[in-house]
Amino acid sequence: MAENDLKSVLRKYFGFNSFKGEQESVITNVLKGNNTFVIMPTGGGKSMCYQLPALMSEGTAIVVSPLIALMKNQVDAIRNVSDSEAVAHFLNSSLTKTEITKVKLDIQAGKTKLLYVAPESLTKQENIDFLTSVDISFFAIDEAHCISEWGHDFRPEYRRLREIFEKISNVPIIALTATATPKVQYDIQKNLNMLDAQVFKSSFNRDNLYYEIRPKKDVEKQIIKYVRTKAGKSGIIYCLSRKKVEELSELLQVNGINALPYHAGLDANTRGKHQDMFLMEDANIIVATIAFGMGIDKPDVRFVIHHDIPKSLESYYQETGRAGRDGGEGECVAFYSYKDIEKLEKFLQGKPIAEQEIGRQLLSEIVSYAETSVCRRKFILHYFGEIFDEKGCNAYCDNCKNPKERREGKEYVTMLINAINDLQETQKAKHYCAFLSGNLTSDIKSYKHDAIKGFGIGKEKDEHFWNAVIRQVIVAGLVFKDIETYGTLKLTDEGKAYYKEPKSFSLIKEHDFSNTDDDDSDIIDSGKGGAFDEVLYDMLLDLRKSISKQKNIPPFVIFQEPSLKDMSFQYPITIDELTNIQGVGNGKAARYGEPFTALIHQYVEDNEIERPQDMVVKSLINKSGLKVQLIHNIDRKLPLEDIGRAQGKSIDEVIDEIEAIVSSGTRVNINYYIDDILDADNQEEIYEYFSEAETDDLDQAVADFDGDYTEEELRLMRIKFMSEMAN
């Protein structure tokens, strides 16, 4: 077909005047009836490669797609460019019998050009029988990486597609994916029996995307702070677990950020609603598991955040590829902690050995990516079999923006290359790290590699260092990981030449991710640890003192010192923000808060302070539920020992909880319990002591009473005093 004819059809259906990249060549190849394999990054326009030829061909194109939501989106998109609803349909488990009949009638009438099916639907004999009886133009397999066991989203039912196709019709196949390493590409073609296919591979470089890895420390605080700098912009935050998706979206909402959760555990209506709200910009942020995003055609996603590092570099590449599809700004920030990798390794246990080996190999690649100091763009492109000069990154990754120091590494690279040669290219990276650093592991002993001359030759450096050397020589092309043997290191031709004649090699100092935490805490505790503003703290102490004199109550009754320290850390300037301060509830904030927030507001303005408002204390619902239960039991006048026994807690722990409730501004009446252990005169003496004391310090009280009362008795009386005076 003439070039002009193709462009006129493109204009007619889709309103575009020209094709993107290799779309035109791909479409021409499909229309010629050839098998076609398309590797095109997210946002490159893969769908067009089968949609346009389907609209131009006789019969119906069968499009295999992995997700029901994705099918619906694609069908809606095609119907929008046609004057007939019948032009595209999907066939899956969500349809009623009446709807299935309608689909089949439209196909038989020759009205349907594209039929989207799930692989599971294709295996049903009734569907095979029906499709055998109609005219099929070609088969398209979207997300074809699902075929390969080495792909990041392997699905066993995809492995059967070829045999099903052969039962239905002998027509051409077009397979499409956004991510395929050379190994995955070969695996897909072999499985589909289409090694003869013409391969169209676009560059994997997305030059508008900025890549950054951050240590996973105070991750929720970092995310909130980051999102606040992107006000009004769309973003996706990926988490590995549904629980974390729920928690993080709730935390963002509490902090005034318009975020919605999305995961497979939500019902279909909620998922659909949340997806539509994101597409229509009624919500800026989607917090999701990887269930979200496949085929989501939102061009202006401005950032993608990974709360947890993904299982593979392919997953990471595909998920980050949802940013900046319009060619505009797209920032990709991932938080990395080795603890996350250990968790993912645990998930592999119990799976078949081959699957475990593949999973570990994929994990080792994502670890290498996270920890490397090499240009991240170069690293990703190398992984996908593409050579890239880091100068072309234009400082569009954290490693090029803030380069680490370099050093001459010839000595170390030579040691490594010699070791790989001496061990006859039989071992994986971990083994060489142990061998060079002289670590006598069980594998080293069993292979008797400690008897080899080079064992421990690089022992002045640790295994972390040797891992870094391995990563950098792989990217430099001296060594490669043999996938068939699950990551055994082998020398390339360049590596063999280096072995014979070593030369200068510039090594980059690696990142240190040892100081990370996997923040699974349910409370973001802002008052403990971290430096607080001592100048403001002194001002708040003075204010508290003047109010205590004015109201004739001890200073600690107003706010206790930990609360003032937290105020000097978080800078609350409204009563609402004040309730997020440690030990300050609604009642206390309303009673005493006004002058404190006014002083802080003035101080923040005078000193142009950037407030860390992301540090919100976030309590779990079940904790507040226990608090309500405790108050309810006290209202029933149950002995504190019985309350503790029912919850498996000591009397001390119960008193701790009551103190926390009272210090946050809730009144609790434990007179019934105190009356049983102290007579009226003793109570009056202790009460008077606290009303005149400068501090509520318990050690001081015990010392002042010289042992007349136990610590427990004084704590209980302090609770009574604080409850009546402060609340």
Which second-level CATH architecture of the largest domain applies? 3-Layer(aba) Sandwich
Number of strands: 17
- What fraction of residues sit in β-strands? 5-15%
Low-confidence stretches: 518-530, 614-623
- Range of helix content: 40-55%
Count of structural domains:
5
**Any idea what the radius of gyration is?**
33 Å
Shape: globular
- Largest pleated sheet: 7 strands, parallel
Please tally the helical runs, counting DSSP H or I stretches of 4 or more residues. 34
Which structural class fits the helix and strand makeup?
alpha/beta
As laid out across the biggest beta sheet, the strand order is 3-4-2-5-6-1-7
- Span between termini: 83 Å
Mean pLDDT: 87
CATH topology of the largest domain: the name is Rossmann fold
Which superfamily, in CATH terms, is the homologous superfamily of the largest domain? P-loop containing nucleotide triphosphate hydrolases
CATH class placement of the largest domain:
Alpha Beta
SSE inventory with pairings:
Elements: H1 3-14, H2 23-31, E1 36-39, H3 46-56, E2 60-64, H4 68-80, E3 88-91, H5 97-108, E4 114-117, H6 119-122, H7 125-132, E5 136-141, H8 161-168, E6 173-177, H9 182-191, E7 198-201, E8 209-215, H10 219-228, E9 234-238, H11 242-254, E10 259-262, H12 268-279, E11 285-288, E12 301-306, H13 313-320, E13 330-336, H14 338-348, H15 353-371, H16 376-383, H17 398-401, E14 406-408, H18 410-422, H19 429-437, H20 442-446, H21 463-475, E15 479-482, E16 488-491, H22 493-500, E17 506-508, H23 534-551, H24 555-558, H25 561-570, H26 575-578, H27 586-606, H28 621-635, H29 640-647, H30 651-663, H31 671-677, H32 680-692, H33 698-704, H34 711-725
Parallel strand pairs: 1-6, 1-7, 2-4, 2-5, 3-4, 5-6, 8-13, 9-11, 9-12, 10-11, 12-13
Antiparallel strand pairs: 14-17, 15-16
Helix pairs in contact: 2-3, 14-15, 18-22, 19-21, 23-25, 23-27, 29-30, 30-34, 32-34
